[in-house]
Amino acid sequence: MIETKLFGKKTKNPTILASGILSVTKESLERVAFEGAGAVTTKSLTPDSRKGHEGPNIIEVDCGLLNAMGYPNPGIKDGLKEFEDWKMKEPLIISIAGKDEKEFSELASAVEKSKTKCTAIEAVISCPHTPGYGLMAGQSDPESVGRITSAIKKKTKIPLIIKLSPSTPGEVAAAKEAEKAGADAINMGNTVGPGMKINIERKKPEIGFGCGGLSGPAMKPIALRCVYDIYSEVKIPIIGTGGITTGEDMIEYMMAGASYVGIGTAIHYRGMSSFRRISNEAATWLESHGYNNIKDIIGVAHG
Amino acid sequence: MAEYPMITAKITKIQKEGGKATTYELAHEFNAEPGQFIMLWLPGTGERPMGVSDNNPMTLTVAHVGTFTDEMKKLNEGDVLSFRGPMGHGFTLPEKPGKILVVAGGTGVVPTHLLAQKAKKDGHKVYVVVGAKTKADVCYEKKFKKIADELLISTDDGSKGFKGNAVQAAEKMIKKHKVDAVYSCGPEKMMRFLAELCKKEKLPCQLSLERYMKCGIGICGSCMIGNKRVCKDGPVFNGEALLTSKEFGKSKRDAGGRKIDL
Question: Is the pTM of this model over 0.90?
Fold first, then answer.
């Protein structure tokens, strides 16, 4: 009913742990897989280690979370070592974040040569709150997306997912450029924003970095619309990410055109078993509506 | 609505403690279970997990060990502190009144003090070991004296109380009082030895751990020990379960997630 395949590899359901959530260590990813995720994504790895921004790093806002982590990670070398010997049957996706196409191609090369076996590489070019990266470096512009995608594809045969932003105009053009340059899938998308919360007692922004990306139900309509529009224009599969908290949210994204769904913030609301619960709810919905294969609903909202 | 809204409260009292630690009392009545923690926010500096030693008035005791806690030295009575919480999974006391041993190392006195208070209120006999390197580092002697059925202070150099480490002192108290359960917070290496002692003595023990934490709400994954989140599944864990961990008392992760020795 909800089994699917990710780049030829069987997965028990279309849910994927979104990058940056509970993905610092291999044992953390193993637990997430055990809790029901169909596939998992590592913390984004950069060429050198980074401490990330000072806290508060994640705060609650109405119907979502604001986060500005700032890519804390041990660097590509130690990061790849951390995820060596991945033995779970759930596909492992390695997330990479570079400052420019040169860094992205070096990171891709390191993954290609590494002993760490992954099903896909996810290149994130859409972080809204880290100087030098993503939106703060204009990486989500269609022309930049094409350049970064080509640079990575030259270095590796591992399937490539490009993670776009739902916050910048031109996301459909960016997806088309990624497809043209050889990307194997689109992840729509990153957090929205950046957004802000001001603590009125302290008269200061509550996020340590000042602003942060918005995730959770508050942003769902935006990322969902982006998935819908991208599905109309590209043929490669789409991972829909943004605010998926229930099985019905997952069905909605898949009707908009997503083949898989990214999940992160739901863990805050429903715990680590969110993956299993969301999948089960989606399966129940499909059954009660006469479907026997989840793939049959992909893109049906386009009628 | 936020599960953990930011709370701001005025500091009513600042007091020096042993080991160059400082105690801050706030004009706030809190609701932490013993062992739960807060994320303390210093605007412009950052956010760190901190224990709570008393709910009314809410009390924190902080060892000045880095830039964040050094920044706290600038605070005066009348200034405010902001925090989110209580967070995490704290200590669980035995259902029936019995005899418990509380072992505190250094500023491990903080969550264990709140525990001792609650245990006493619930009708348990409460025995306490407070361990420190030397006499000047002993914290909470007066506070524990008010609660404990017996308080044993241990110093590594013998400058006060029992000469030896906190685990040796704990062994003495376990034998003397035939306690039913052991609770601890302190240096992790010390707690590993304590867990081994409790295993040998067939005593249940609960230990409070510390890890680098970024979110405090179980999302970011920076505080993992094995496949457990210290902020959400912990910070209090069962000692016997911890002994199966390769990391307990041995290694932790730095801010970037790299494994480092304890």
Answer: yes
Mean pLDDT confidence for B224-244: 97
User: Residue B1 above 80 pLDDT?
Assistant: no
Distance CA A116, CA A110 (A): 10
Domains, in order of start, for chain B: 7-87 (2.40.30.10), 91-208 (3.40.50.80), 210-262 (2.10.240)
pLDDT tens digit string along B39-94? 999 999 999 999 999 999 999 999 999 999 999 999 999 999 999 999 999 999 99
Facing residues of A17 across strands? A263
Catalytic one among A63, A127, A211, A226?
A: A127
Closest CA to B249 of B210, B202, B212: B210
Question: Who among A22, A51, A56 is closest to B41 (CB)?
Answer: A56
Q: Test A58 with B220 for CB contact under 8 angstroms.
A: yes
Confidence of residue A303 (pLDDT cuts 50, 70, 90): confident
Helix (H, G, I), strand (E, B) or coil at B240: helix
Rounded CA gap, B77 and B63, in Å?
Answer: 18
Mutate to test the interface with A, among B38, B41, B214 (most CBs of A within 10 A): B214
Separation of first and last alpha carbons in chain B: 38
**Would you call A127 a catalytic residue per the annotation?**
yes
Residue range A157-187, pLDDT digits in tens: 999 999 999 998 899 999 999 999 999 999 9
Helix, strand or coil, per DSSP, at residue B168: helix
**ipTM metric:** 0.94
Which of A54, A59, A199 faces B46 most closely, judged by CB atoms?
A54
Selected for mutation to probe chain A from B1, B8, B47 (highest A CB count within 10 Å) is B47
* Percentage above 90 pLDDT, chain A: 98
Rounded to the nearest angstrom, the minimum Cα separation between A165 and chain B is 20
All structural domains of chain A, each given as residue ranges with its CATH number in brackets, are: 4-302 (3.20.20.70)
Helices A101-113, A142-155: axis angle to 10 degrees equals 30
